[in-house]
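Can't paste images in this forum, so I'm doing it all in text. The chain is below; anyone willing to post the predicted structure tokens underneath?
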Amino acid sequence: MQTQTPSVSLIRATSYQVEALRESLETLLEPLGGITAFVKSGDRVLLKPNLLTGSRPTAECTTRPEMVYAVAIMVIEAGGKPFLGDSPAFGSAKGVALANGYERILEELNLPVIEFHGKRYEIVNDKFNHLLLSKETMEADVVINLPKVKSHAQLVLTLGVKNLFGCVPGKMKAWWHMEAGKDANRFAEMLVETAKAINPNLTIIDGIIGHEGNGPSGGEPRPLGILGCSTDVFALDRAIVEILNVPPEQVPTLAASMRLGICPELNAIEFVSLHPDLLQIDDWQLPSKYMPIDFGMPRVIKSTFKHLYIRFIKEKMSAHSEN
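Text version of the structure:
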């Protein structure tokens, strides 16, 4: 990860309307050099949204298509070749994207949606050297991470670091819940090592409307009116928990990254636009009830069959009914 002082850009933003969102993103990125500081002509650029589920398309638990559209347009204008990728818990990336209103932007931009395939990559922490990561992610020229601000019933909050767990392909995520979930600290360290190995070139987090309460999918929309970005995903997550007024040690991914010396202290971050103190709220709703991280074998088997049913039967039936 970076050794210089990490920079985080935070701004107020309230609209997903195309022109307004584009203007907000340009303002957000300008202190970091704009999109051309990250994307060069010919670069293959992975846009990694949060495509959690297709079952609640109006609940703000996935990355908005407007956000992906605006970032993709900026990438194209910079000469890059964007493509969309994720590994949803249930169903395919394209199926979940379509269920969440992505059809128009996929067609208009001819934006490819790829399914992730696993490959083993060496990482520094030998406890996780059997971790499979998406080769499509690791082989992209540029990775732009596009998470939502959300509460999470297992991990308190799901922000930039947790969004990169979607680069662990297919049902490997469920197996990691079973293998590492009995130790919350170890599971959080696995998420941190995943994010460190991927090391996204840029993370843009959407807090225009977040998702609070019993997330990642069972909560409710919550207008926050913020956007944030950084080349350091750990620094950005640290800034967001400060805005939400949640102690970082209460969030397993933040606690693990601090324990491992990866997450900077707040006073070690350069805030190039607004400081978190100016955006802070005191009534963000965390989950009312927390769930265990570990999955037993019956749950892994059930989860796997549900994933296969949605991807290979339900999505295909839906596609046929629309033709």
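Residues 56 and 104 are 19 Å apart (CA to CA). The longest strand covers residues 202-212.
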